[in-house]
Design a protein that fits this description.
Elements (H helix, E strand, L loop, with lengths): L1 H9 L6 E8 L2 E8 L10 E7 L6 H8 L1 H8 L2 E5 L3 H4 L22 H16 L2 E11 L1 H12 L6 E5 L18 H12 L8 E6 L7 H20 L12 E6 L5 E8 L5 E8 L6 E2 L11 E2 L5 H9 L20
Parallel strand pairs: 3-4, 3-5, 5-6, 6-7, 7-10, 11-12
Antiparallel strand pairs: 1-2, 2-4, 8-9, 9-10
Helix pairs in contact: 5-6, 6-7, 7-8
Length: 333
């Protein structure tokens, strides 16, 4: 702890965690913002916006994912978004849920996706954030908002991560694993991108033990992202990005779940998509911390999602995801 404190002081500022709120379309949305331990206001840092799922809070998501630790180790800031007061007190299973069921949320300037964009922009004003390296990550209902945010704000978010959720406007995939055709989801996302259309790399985590969003929802979500990027590149959903994995590797968490990792490359062999399918994990955040106050929200038998997501996101700068290579030449720390 002393070493961390000295590093922070040497960088010119102590680590600071801040709570705040934004007012979007007349509604107040709170957030928690974490600056890395070595934050130096003279040096721009990446920003990761994390969107919790239904029946959880921004603080719970913060504690279960372990993103603060990954941020401190790698020098990026994190903003944990929170739903508004109305959704925080919604009845039944929709308590603390983002409005994935509201069609307005899937179009720029409206509903919860507008709030997420404003929270990101507020953090960019408060900290020295690299505007080329702003990312969006969401789980479950927050994952649906992340799919929407990738389409609504491709001019803001360089790349995205989706956990135990589904693709753009594919909330109907919930429980049945089918939802709308992936071609329709991709086309709708392309329409939402409009003149801001570009390649938006995506990493996704799904599980065949998830009864809320079955594994096929994540298979479709990654394919939708690739198809939408193809539309931005060529006007066709099928090329130039291959919809077939370049590699698939099977792995095993010691004492935990087996899982498969598939990678998707652009024509130059650069990574543009990644998909984890975990075998047997129920609906939860993969891995995470051992904080007893959030026991049950994460699953330590699964591969740890936060460091894997950062390892993917850090490769991308917003203006450099086009062809011939989606990955930035110098991804940084």
């Amino acid at each position: 702890m002393l070493v961390v404190a000295l590093l922070a002081l040497a960088a010119g500022t102590a680590r600071a965690d801040t709570t705040g709120s934004v007012t979007s379309n007349g509604t107040v949305f709170p957030y928690i913002r974490h600056a890395p331990a070595t934050y130096d206001p003279n040096k721009p840092v990446p920003l990761v916006v994390v969107v919790h799922g239904a029946q959880t809070t921004a603080d719970q998501e913060r504690r279960v994912t372990g993103f603060d630790t990954v941020a401190d180790e790698n020098g990026f800031a994190v903003l944990y978004a929170e739903v508004d007061a109305t959704d925080a007190s919604a009845p039944g299973p929709l308590v603390q849920s983002w409005n994935f069921y509201d069609p307005r949320a899937y179009f720029r300037g409206n509903n919860d996706t507008a709030a997420l964009a404003l929270m990101a922009q507020t953090a960019m004003s408060a900290l020295n954030v690299d505007p080329e390296r702003v990312y969006l990550v969401g789980v479950s209902a927050g994952g649906l908002m992340t799919s929407a945010g990738a389409a609504d704000y491709p001019d803001l978010f360089a790349a995205v991560g989706i956990v135990e959720s589904a693709g753009y406007a594919d909330g109907f995939c919930f429980t049945d694993g089918q939802g709308i055709p992936v071609q329709a989801s991709a086309q709708l996302a392309s329409v939402a991108e409009g003149s801001n259309a570009r390649v938006v790399p995506m990493i996704g985590f799904g599980s065949d033990g998830d009864l809320a969003f079955p594994a096929n929802c994540m298979v479709k979500a990654v394919e939708q992202a690739l198809r939408t990027s193809n539309l931005a590149l060529s006007g066709s959903q099928d090329a130039p990005l291959s919809l077939t994995p370049a590699t698939t590797v099977s792995r095993q968490v010691p004492g935990g779940y087996a899982y498969d990792v598939s990678t998707f490359d652009d024509p130059n062999g650069c990574l543009v998509g990644e998909r984890y399918i975990i075998h047997g994990m129920p609906h939860a955040w993969p891995g995470g911390t051992d904080d007893p106050t959030v026991k049950g929200y994460g699953d330590p038998k699964a591969p740890d999602a936060a460091p894997a997501i950062w390892d993917f996101l850090k490769r991308y700068r917003k203006s450099e995801t086009g062809m011939p290579c989606a990955e930035a030449t110098a991804p940084g720390p």
